[in-house]
């Protein structure tokens, strides 16, 4: 279904996110006839430039985007004619006056404000929008899309929610987490609740432990300034990984609508008790990568990256053992890990089932137990590992797997996460966005970890070689319980 007519206003229009993600996603939506004919984009940025220059800049991003498989000049020109630029400072009331005047020229009164700006700009933009009445929905809708990071701890997230609530109603607010737009992530609920087979064993009676991994082989690129302040916990765990955890662990929602789904996720997060500082010491590992050689090329360590202070204590890797204290999951560890500059890019959820009560077959003990692996990216798919009899006279059991692979099962590549979520926002569907209580519940779990870490600022951090599987301390986290990470090598 098509999106409603709308003017999309992007704050931070000359930034990386707009160029690399938002515009390619919108262009692909336009190519697939998903946008209304009355759809317009206004980019706001501080730099002085005319529409033609702005469009040219965006064109470069689109032409380089892997999302656009065949770039057609005519299609781009048609799309670009809907884009205009407004140069202005976010702090200045004049900018909003000009914006209001510009918006009044369009026939549609529907507006979507996308904040692709530094988080510190969010409060003032919201306030200034309200000063000129742009949050009002007299003749059409007014919606706000807020990017992560949503605050940097529980207190700041609460404050931000409070500020937003003074101006917008919750149903107008789209807190975006791009992981929720990924096809494989959306499939988690379909896999679990669309099949009777799996859900009956999806609980503490059958599951031994769950691993959620988001490993990246790349470093921080040009984002060291941001990452230095955030670190792996805030950048990846406080949002993306906790979303994956919630989708894996939540109970069935009453319906597949925004409130029902967000209610069930919030229950999961609320069931995770915030850690004490002793628990932080025994159930979390943070580390930094050090220089190494990958495929013959030397790769710098975190401290040698441009713009990183030599005494930086920012973690580029984190592993956690989280516990969900509810009837379904009590006693089952949920291990989360993520890091930059690891051996390979892989995001997956691995659900490990208990061993059979008795083992008859030689070598059965050395088999991995049954594991369901939801491969989020790359090589998207789902596999189930189990033991089979080795052919011939052997009585040995060997590990084999059943495999579902998106590329072979479906001809068409899925749309990008941003395309999916932008379309949802244009259609008014909040199901894949985080509700105000959700972000607070996420920070309630994360903030005690940050606080306990900050309190041990004299202790040196574990390290791992760039291109490796992570610090050996992370193995210890699982060995303690007789478990082991899956290899990411
Ligand atoms: C972003 C983080 O939210 O997600 C980045 O800020 C990270 O540091 C990125 O690289 C990972 O997203 P994806 O879609 O490539 O897994």
TrEMBL record:
<feature type="binding site">
    <location>
        <position position="182"/>
    </location>
    <ligand>
        <name>substrate</name>
    </ligand>
</feature>
<feature type="binding site">
    <location>
        <position position="178"/>
    </location>
    <ligand>
        <name>substrate</name>
    </ligand>
</feature>
<dbReference type="Pfam" id="PF00479">
    <property type="entry name" value="G6PD_N"/>
</dbReference>
<feature type="domain" description="Glucose-6-phosphate dehydrogenase NAD-binding">
    <location>
        <begin position="9"/>
        <end position="187"/>
    </location>
</feature>
<feature type="active site" description="Proton acceptor">
    <location>
        <position position="240"/>
    </location>
</feature>
<feature type="binding site">
    <location>
        <position position="46"/>
    </location>
    <ligand>
        <name>NADP(+)</name>
    </ligand>
</feature>
<comment type="pathway">
    <text>Carbohydrate degradation; pentose phosphate pathway; D-ribulose 5-phosphate from D-glucose 6-phosphate (oxidative stage): step 1/3.</text>
</comment>
<dbReference type="InterPro" id="IPR001282">
    <property type="entry name" value="G6P_DH"/>
</dbReference>
<dbReference type="GO" id="GO:0004345">
    <property type="term" value="F:glucose-6-phosphate dehydrogenase activity"/>
</dbReference>
<keyword id="KW-0521">NADP</keyword>
<dbReference type="InterPro" id="IPR022675">
    <property type="entry name" value="G6P_DH_C"/>
</dbReference>
<feature type="binding site">
    <location>
        <position position="235"/>
    </location>
    <ligand>
        <name>substrate</name>
    </ligand>
</feature>
<dbReference type="Pfam" id="PF02781">
    <property type="entry name" value="G6PD_C"/>
</dbReference>
<feature type="binding site">
    <location>
        <position position="148"/>
    </location>
    <ligand>
        <name>NADP(+)</name>
    </ligand>
</feature>
<dbReference type="InterPro" id="IPR036291">
    <property type="entry name" value="NAD(P)-bd_dom_sf"/>
</dbReference>
<feature type="domain" description="Glucose-6-phosphate dehydrogenase C-terminal">
    <location>
        <begin position="190"/>
        <end position="486"/>
    </location>
</feature>
<dbReference type="GO" id="GO:0009051">
    <property type="term" value="P:pentose-phosphate shunt, oxidative branch"/>
</dbReference>
<keyword id="KW-0313">Glucose metabolism</keyword>
<dbReference type="GO" id="GO:0050661">
    <property type="term" value="F:NADP binding"/>
</dbReference>
<keyword id="KW-0119">Carbohydrate metabolism</keyword>
<comment type="similarity">
    <text>Belongs to the glucose-6-phosphate dehydrogenase family.</text>
</comment>
<keyword id="KW-0560">Oxidoreductase</keyword>
<feature type="binding site">
    <location>
        <position position="340"/>
    </location>
    <ligand>
        <name>substrate</name>
    </ligand>
</feature>
<dbReference type="InterPro" id="IPR019796">
    <property type="entry name" value="G6P_DH_AS"/>
</dbReference>
<dbReference type="GO" id="GO:0005829">
    <property type="term" value="C:cytosol"/>
</dbReference>
<dbReference type="InterPro" id="IPR022674">
    <property type="entry name" value="G6P_DH_NAD-bd"/>
</dbReference>
<comment type="function">
    <text>Catalyzes the oxidation of glucose 6-phosphate to 6-phosphogluconolactone.</text>
</comment>
<feature type="binding site">
    <location>
        <position position="216"/>
    </location>
    <ligand>
        <name>substrate</name>
    </ligand>
</feature>
<dbReference type="GO" id="GO:0006006">
    <property type="term" value="P:glucose metabolic process"/>
</dbReference>
<protein>
    <recommendedName>
        <fullName>Glucose-6-phosphate 1-dehydrogenase</fullName>
        <ecNumber>1.1.1.49</ecNumber>
    </recommendedName>
</protein>
